[in-house]
Design brief:
Layout lengths: L1 H4 L6 H31 L2 E6 L2 E6 L8 E5 L7 E13 L1 H4 L5 E2 L5 E2 L4 E13 L5 H9 L8 H33 L9 H18 L4 H18 L2 E3 L3 H8 L2 E4 L1 H5 E12 L6 H11 L5 H9 L10 E3 L7 E5 L5 E5 L1 H4 L4 H11 L4 E8 L13 E12 L3 H10 L3 E5 L4 H10 L8 E3 L7 H10 L2 E3 L3 H13 L4 E5 L5 H6 L2 E5 L4 H6 L2 E3 L7 H39 L7 H21 L10 H29 L4 H24 L4 H19 L1 H6 L7 H6 L1
Parallel strand pairs: 9-16, 9-19, 16-18, 17-18, 19-20, 20-21
Antiparallel strand pairs: 1-2, 1-3, 3-7, 4-5, 4-6, 4-7, 8-21, 10-15, 11-12, 12-13, 13-14, 14-15
Amino acid sequence: VVLIVAPVNDALFGVVLVTNAAIGIIQELRAKKTLDRLALLSAPRATVIRNGREGEVAVNGVVLDDLLTLKAGDQIVVDGVVVTADGLEIDESLLTGESDAILKERGDEVLSGSFVSAGSGVYKARRVGADAYAVRLAEEARKFTLVRSELRNGIDRILRGITWVLVPTALLLIWSQFTTITGWPGSQDWGWADIKEATRLSIAGLVAMIPQGLVLLTSVAFAVGVIRLGRRNVLVQELPAVEGLARVDTVCFDKTGTLTEGRLVVDEVELLSEQHDVRAALGALGASDPNPNATLQAITEQFPEPSGWWPTATVPFSSARKWSGASFGGFGSWILGAPEMILPNDPVVAERVAASAGKGKRVLLLARASGDLSGDELPFGVEPVAVLGLSDRIRDDAVETLEYFARQGVDAKVISGDHPETVAAIAREVGIPGADRVVDARTLPEDPAELAEVVDTSTVFGRVTPHQKRAMVGALQSRGHVVAMTGDGVNDVLALKDADIGIAMGSGSSASRSVAQLVLLDGSFSTLPSVVGEGRRVIANIERVANLFVVKTVYAFLLAVLVGIFSTPFPFVPRHLTLVGTLTIGAPAFFIALAPTAERARTGFVPRVMRFAVPVGALAAAATYLSYELAITEEVTLIEARTTATLVLFAIGLFALVINARPLTTPRKWLIGSMVALFLLAFFLTSGRTFFELDLPRAVVLLAG
């Protein structure tokens, strides 16, 4: 419309919009390219059996009737039917909400989106691609689910409010300009030139009321954050996670694989009975599981498989049972696992376990039973044979990262399935405050309120089941905490899913990676402060940007109301507001939105923006309108009066920019100085004044302004 009724100079705001949009599109495409690359590295793959050979293929490469292998930690990627099962237990909690693992036998159905919690097996693909259960479920869920983002929700609230006031204000402005310029409807002495001028002034007010670039710059800030984190090998699977971690006040750490490297070594074997061949029993147990976990792998590396030990029955390890076992015919049944789950009331075992756990070791009990293994129940006649101590190396970056969170006032909770004293020793070694507040999860109360009290006041938790991890995250959230959960194993999936921010290790199970919002692809703990820093940058800078844009909306709205009430021509043409808006809001906001910051995240985004924008915008509108009216009373030309109003509005806009740019670092001083210099060029150069329709006002008017 401006191109029809006004010179092209008044359409400059269109150039700004197109430029901003182009920048936004480029940044979004760069972010998408980064995400696609990282997602490819993190994407789950399926192990298929074709022509009698096992091989890995991408999930979209699985076809009907493919045979796929399963082991603990694998995610089921297509729907199918079990062909063979060896203690195969499937956790379908992500589909059904039920946390109990389900034992699967030959012929049972397995659904995509679930994962293997124990055992191994092979299944045949029956439904792939869009026909798979998880894909259909995701299509339905996509209609209802949005990740919570205070920034996004706050900006939506601001835009809804602007929409409500924009329509009546626009009608008032248009009516006032047409009646003032053309004298309509009483006067007949008006022409096409009057209509064009009234339209031009109406558009100037309308364009100023719209916060151009606010949503765009929010999107750009998020996109740049994704790119920066991508360079640090952090996969951001949901954009608000960048913002979310900056708001976190409690981080729950799983010990194994997060605080520690997860590479276990058996460094202690204390015999409790001399009657049995412990080395042979350990070697046989390690060899009996085709898909050993980290503990069994450490045992397998140190104890070779003995000859003649053939398993007749096996029970794979599960995080719920906390033990595994196998029967070896004449050699008896052997069980390996948490001592307090196998022989909870044996004082000798308890004493030996406490001594090893106090050194920070993972402690296991090797026991022999007379009866055969059957299902989840321990056989009769269980006797202790040996206590094993396994050590796990603490990550090099764990101490530094935890110190960072402590300085930021973020509480750390260590939640592990290991013995409480083992977990406490590791927590003390990495310097977690309150590591002496140790809780055995088997003593945790069932009542949600009592559980919340214990979890909130304690720091270290041992012997925690997957279901309890999830409950503990919920208990912290019920106390108003924003909770992040780190983990890498199958037993962490439920808690990762329910936490405000789930952080998975790239080396962890595909199930844990699939439900987390952030994936540390290289497993580097030290990248977490970078994620927090990016989140803080986004939150703080978007608030600064919102302050500037909403100030413009407020003063444009109030000016429209004032000229409507007093029936005066709008004090600006579009090019005036383009000049002021670009130099005090648009260009500075782009740089401010991308600048680094160390400010802590706070709630209350919208109230803070309004507390700043309303008084500053009201001041700008009042001062601008008064200077405009004063200039008119001095009988200056209309161009001079508009120039006076432009000067006053630029001065107040510059004041708002300076406040929002604090602290005034050297780059920000250069930014503000360059904006002032550009305005002075436009004002004092003859070509600039001609282009922007400005004229030097008389000294008395200038001084009054």
